[in-house]
Structure formats: structure tokens, C-alpha cells
């Protein structure tokens, strides 16, 4: 009997005689059986992403031992440091349910957590409420009406973050506002600002940025940094644009304040 640990800062997961199956030249799946209390700990502490990844169905029926399958690279198995839980992601959890007709297996399948999960947590801490989510994008709005849309474009390998704050009618036709925005976009680093008019003729001040989703880019961390930065950007720019519209500030003075 071989006892193999998955090393974790949350406490190692000990497996007995784990089964290893190749997926392709790069990936392998490891299957092992755990008792109910250990499965509960894995979910509570998000080991293998069991708490933060999307799962179908949401709850695993029944009681008792759970057969868990995780996926990782062949290199993760060959690491001289041992098997580290952070190098594996959960794929499925199965449990045998006994019925009068005999036993049958029920299962929970896991999918990758959306790339925006970390960013969304930051937004919710800042008072944003999610008001729409699909596989490719998520929308959230704060109590002041500022909306943020995070979108993933797999074909183009890019993710975008767009903040929009409603503005007075005719803002986009103000030469002073357009000149200010042009001045700001010359100096801003993390994103750009623009005026937008939607199909209902509602006008918005928009702050936006994008990040490539290619290998080597920590997309969740970058999206998190972008939403924090763009929140600050639009909160700083919007009141100054309003003062330019009202004539309180000149374009030059507004530019100096924001750059």
C-alpha cells in the first residue's frame, strides 16, 4: 500500500494507492478515494480549487467516501519537491449511492474558475453588485451607477475591462471634454478614457484596458490589478470632466490636475 501526499499549505492531502492515467503528452489525471471528512476539508479550504472552480451540479449527493480526480502536468508528478496540490486542479468528485435496486455512482464535474473571479471579489469589496454573467463576460454595477464589464475573447486571446459612468446629455459633443480626453490618453498608462453614446442616446464616460490571455500571463492577477486601477481612474476623471462641462475648469487646468 502506497501513501502519497499532495503537499498543501492548508494541510497535506494523503492518498492511498492513487491511480495515474495519462491524458496526453503533457497532462495526467490522478484518481484517489477520500473519506467524507477529508472531502469536506478540501472543499472548505479550496484545495485543488474545489471551492472556487465552477461545478455541476452544485452539490454532491449522498454520504460517505468520495472518489476524486485531479489533473496536472507530468512535470508536476516528477517534481523533486513532491506532489503539490497547487499544481493540480480538480476534475470530478464521485460517490456511490446505495438504493434498493443496487448501488450507482453520482458525480460532480468541475470546470475552470472564470478568469475574472479574483477581480470580481475585489469589485464586490468596493460595493459592486453582479448583475449579469455568462461564460465569456460578467457585468457589475455600484450604487452610483458605475458599471464594469469584464469580457474574455478566446479567439482573439484578449480580455478587456470597461468601466462606464453615465454623463449629462451632449457631453460627447463638448470640444473641451474631447480635448481633455485626448490630453489624458497621451499620458495614461494603465488604460484609456473615452466618451460613448449607446443606442438609447445615453452618454457615458468610459475607462478601459485590455490584457492578452496568452501563455505566461497571469490573467486573473492582471485583471484584478486592472479593475482596481480603472476604478480609481474613472473616480478621479469623472468629477473633473463634470467641472470642465460646467465651465468651472479650463481644459489646461483639468489636464494638469489629472496628469
Description:
There is one protein chain. This protein has 259 residues and is α+β, with helices and mostly antiparallel strands. It has six helices and 15 strands. Strands 3-4-6-8-9-5 form a six-stranded antiparallel β-sheet. A hairpin with a 5-residue loop joins strand 14 and strand 15 (203-212).
- Strand order, main sheet: write it out: 3-4-6-8-9-5
What is the percentage of strand-forming residues?
Answer: 35-45%
Backbone shape: elongated
**Structure class:** alpha+beta
> Helix and strand string, N-terminal first?
EEEEHEEHEEEHEEEEHEEHH
Q: In short, what is this structure?
A:
The chain is built from 6 helices and 15 strands. It has helices at 36-44, 74-78, 117-125, 175-187, 219-246, 251-258, and strands at 3-7, 13-16, 19-22, 27-34, 54-56, 66-73, 83-84, 89-99, 102-111, 129-133, 137-141, 147-153, 158-167, 192-197, 203-212. The longest helix has 28 residues, at 219-246.
Keywords for this entry:
six-stranded antiparallel sheet, 6 helices, alpha+beta, elongated
Give the helices and strands, then pairings.
Layout: E1 3-7, E2 13-16, E3 19-22, E4 27-34, H1 36-44, E5 54-56, E6 66-73, H2 74-78, E7 83-84, E8 89-99, E9 102-111, H3 117-125, E10 129-133, E11 137-141, E12 147-153, E13 158-167, H4 175-187, E14 192-197, E15 203-212, H5 219-246, H6 251-258
Parallel strand pairs: 1-7
Antiparallel strand pairs: 1-2, 3-4, 4-6, 5-9, 6-8, 8-9, 10-11, 11-12, 12-13, 13-15, 14-15
Helix pairs in contact: 3-5, 4-6, 5-6
